[in-house]
Amino acid sequence: MRRVQPRVAILVAVTVVVLVGVGAYAVSAWRANRAAIDSAPPVASTALDAVLAAPHIVFRSTLPGNEYGLVAAVPLDDPDGARAFTDVACDRVDVAGPVASCLRTIAGIATRWEAEVLDSDWRPVETWGLPGIPSRTRLSDDGGLVATTSFVTGHSYATVGFSTLTEVHRADGTSLGNLEDFALTVDGAPFTAADRNIWGVTFVDDDAFYATAASQSVGRTWLVLGSLEDRTLTSLRDDAECPSISPDGTQVAYKKVVDTVGGQPVWSLAVLDLADGTETLLPATRGVDDQAAWLDDDTLLYGLSRADEPGTTDVWAVDTTPDATPAVLIPGAWSPAVEG
Questions:
Q1: 170: three-class secondary structure by DSSP
Q2: In whole angstroms, what is the distance from residue 335 CA to residue 269 CA?
Q3: Which pTM was predicted?
Q4: Do the beta carbons of residue 313 and residue 304 sit within 8 Å?
Q5: What is the pLDDT of residues 232-286, one digit of tens each?
Q6: Following CA atoms 125, 128, 132, 133 in sequence, which dihedral angle do they give, to the nearest 10 degrees?
Q7: Could you give the CA distance from residue 313 to residue 311 in angstroms, rounded to a whole number?
Q8: Which DSSP helix (H) or strand (E) runs through 252?
Q9: Which one, of 184, 300, 204, lies nearest residue 250 by Cα?
Q10: I need a labelling partner for 38 at 20 to 30 A (CA). Which of 30, 79, 210, 260 fits?
C-alpha cells in the first residue's frame, strides 16, 4: 500500500476545508437572502391583461420580495400604483408593439447569459447566447430588429479596460452582425483601432441607427450614425454615450461625462436637437449611468440605484429643460419601456 505523502495530505485537507467553507458560506448567503425575501412587505399587484390593454410602462421590478427581477407593468396614468407581474425574469427589457426583448443571467455552476425574444403573451419565440453580463437592449419601433450589448470583460462602463459586444438580430433570431465589424469613420477618416468598442444602439428605422463608439487608446467616445445595409458607422460628435432617439425622431438623448471623481467618470444626461445641433445638458441628472428612455417627446426616464439599498433601483423622470428637477416615477424599478 502506497503511503500518502505529507504534502498531498495537507493539500487534500486544505481543499476539504476550503470546500466546506465555501459551502457553508453559500448556505448562509442563501438563508440570508431567503430571510430578506420572507420579511419583505408584500408588493401591491393587479391583473396583467388589464394593464397591458391600455398605455403602460414595462420594467424590471427591483422591490424586495418573491417578485424581484420579474418583468412588470404599470398604467401610464398611475406609474406608482399596483404593478402587474409577468413570470419572466430579465436583467434588461425592452418592448415594441407585440415583441419584447429580454436579456438575462442564468446562474449555475457555470453562469451563462442569454437574449430572448418574447411575443405579446410573454412566451419565448427565439433565444440566443450572450458572451457576458447583459448591459443594453433596444427594439426597433415595429419590433423587427433587436439590438443587444453585453460585457465581454468588465461589468460597467466605468471599468478600466472594459470590452463590449453589440449585435443586431432580426426578431426571428437571424444575426445581422457584430457592430465592431462595421466600417467606422471618425472625423472623415477610417478608424481601425483594435480596441474600438460599440454599444448602446437606438433604431431610427429598419436601416439607420445611432450608437456609441469608443477607443480607450485615443481616449475618445463618439455618437455615431450607423447603417445596417451599408455596414457603416459614422461619427457625428464627441462625448456622447448610450443614445436614445425621441418618439418624434427629432432629438437624441445620451449620457455625457461632466466630471471625474477618484479616476471614475461622472455622467449627466444631455439632449441633442438633430435639426440645429443644439445640445442641452441636464445637470440635475448627475450620476446617471443608464440608457435613457423617452416617456414622451419632452420627458426622459432613467434608472438609478439606491445608495442605501443595494440591488434596489428606481426609475426617475426628468423634463428636457436645463433647470428641470428629476423625480421618482416608479419606485423599485429598472429598464423602463413605454408602450402606448
A1: strand
A2: 16
A3: 0.88
A4: yes
A5: 999 999 999 999 999 999 999 999 999 999 989 999 999 999 999 999 999 999 9
A6: 0
A7: 7
A8: strand 251-261
A9: 204
A10: 79
